Amino acid sequence: SKPSTVLAFDLGASSGRAIVGRLDSEAGQLTIEEIHRFPNDPVKVGSRLHWDILRLFHEIKQGILKSKHLGYAQDVESLAIDSWAVDFGLIAPNGELLGNPYHYRDHQTDGVMDQLVAQIGREKLFAKTGLQFLQFNSIYQLYALKERNPSLLDQADTLLMIPDLLRYFLTGEKHSEYTNATTTQLLNASTRNWDQELLDQLELPSKLLLPPVPSGTKVGSLTTAICEELDVASIPVIAVGEHDTASAVVAVPALDQDFAYLSCGTWSLLGTETLSPVLSEQALEWNFTNEGGVYGTNRLLKNIMGLWLIQECKRAWDKEGRSLGFADLVKLAEQAAPFQCFIDPDDDAFLNPEHMPKQIQQYCRDTQQMVPQSEGEIIRCVMESLALKYRLILERTEQLSGKRYSGLHIVGGGIQNELLCQFTANAILREVWAGPVEGSALGNLVVQWITLGYIANLSEARKLIRNSFPVKTYTPDDGEAWQEAYETFYQMASRSTVK
Ligand code: ADP
Ligand code: LRH
């Protein structure tokens, strides 16, 4: 029988892609083809940082057009979008978008979290939502907006998270998808609906937020206007696990029920899948999160600053005219001396500094370490520190879940940094299993196929991914040196409030 074709749009904080997936159910094989990729550069206007949302919508239309030109469009049975979390657009009563959505790294939320947390109480917020405290969670963005730009909120009829918003542009239908809704820190983990008390505290009208629909729900199809504009037949649209990290976790090719994962892109999201939220005091103290997963699963994980640190070093050097690719930077790091200095990647200073390399140097100076000078020294410091941080968070995940993991699955664009994969194996003293690289897009695709009835469930989907894509094993090396480095890293980071 003919393979089933579906289309995934995966929007990361650094780039977006359109991927065609083809499933041969009889052979138990699936293949993917990247048909479109585009940068997702945020835009600074005055002192505000925005996403270029209309451009992203344009690129999604380009992706649909390309699927047509490649001859797939007539076969595409559905499409779906996933993206980074927490950000949103506001819709006016007349159905139009109000303003440009803000980027979660905009400084408007600086200091806001402490204010609101003092008001509500940290324990209470965690008990209700199960979420980690990140200064850019939607709840703090809304609170900041309330103070800074109240008329915008007053005019708004509906809040739509980024994938909800782009999906609304495509279908004309407004729905809120569950996994991404959990990242707002406004959803109650027990009721899986908006927490009325929190909405009241923020004086947010409850009409703003739509009751979340489960991942995998069919939520309309391309509008007639879009079909005419692109000259394509209408395509059904599915709300998959629209939080990119939820989709990445779907795609972890684990054979066991209990596994640890690292979704490695702009952010490094490290944790495990559990049946219910872990709301212990320890989870709160370590600032772990419980984000909603697909099909009732829970994602116990922690955000680690991730490859953002490298992206931002690259951007600073690009601006200075020393254009180096990621592969060049990794090569330079490989040539630099090991274990010279470490940073805590999750120090607030690294969330959105003016100049990342200088910020890293400053951190090393402040912590009385050697100050890295060359590009290679700086990137080596970042990569070793990330690998060591992964160990800390992996061990904490084990303590919280009460499980022991024999290795770590890594998915996402970051696995192209093979030196980082090797460092990670060395640091955690266990195997690393790297792949697939397009984790989020694959998770997006397989949930569409589950909805369409081609794949039975989540574990079948993971088996299928395991059978269709290579997984590269990295075995730990140089254990003693890394153990010593971990002790130094841990002491250094503890002195400056390990996050
Ligand atoms: P996101 O989805 O968050 O935008 P990706 O999963 O696409 O991010 O990962 C992008 C990151 O992968 C880059 O920031 C870079 O650090 C890393 N990367 C991509 N290609 C390479 C490469 N050839 N060598 C080393 N690292 C790479
Ligand atoms: C990764 C991600 C992560 C969120 C952050 C805002 O792309 O979705 O899970 O915390 O972006």
Quaternary status? single chain
Q: Which spans have pLDDT < 50 for at least 5 consecutive residues?
A: none
Shape: globular
* Largest sheet features: 7 strands, mixed
Query: Alpha-carbon distance between the termini?
Result: 52 Å
Number of strands: 20
Strand arrangement in the largest pleated sheet: 16-17-15-14-18-19-20
Structural class, from secondary structure content?
Answer: alpha+beta
The number of helical runs is: 19
* Rounded average pLDDT: 97
Overall radius of gyration? 22 Å
Strand content: 15-25%
The small-molecule ligands in this entry are: adenosine-5'-diphosphate, 6-deoxy-beta-L-fructofuranose
Helix content: 40-55%
Description:
- 41% of the residues lie in helices and 20% in strands.
- It contains 19 helices and 20 strands.
- α15 packs across α19 (479-495).
- The chain is of the alpha+beta class.
- Strands 16-17-15-14-18-19-20 form a 7-stranded mixed sheet, with helices on both faces. The chain has a 4-stranded mixed sheet with strand order 3-2-1-6. Strands 8-7-9 form a 3-stranded antiparallel sheet.
- The protein is globular and about 60 Å long.
- 6-deoxy-beta-L-fructofuranose (LRH) is lined by residues 12-13, 84-86, 104, 243-245, 265-267, 269, 303.
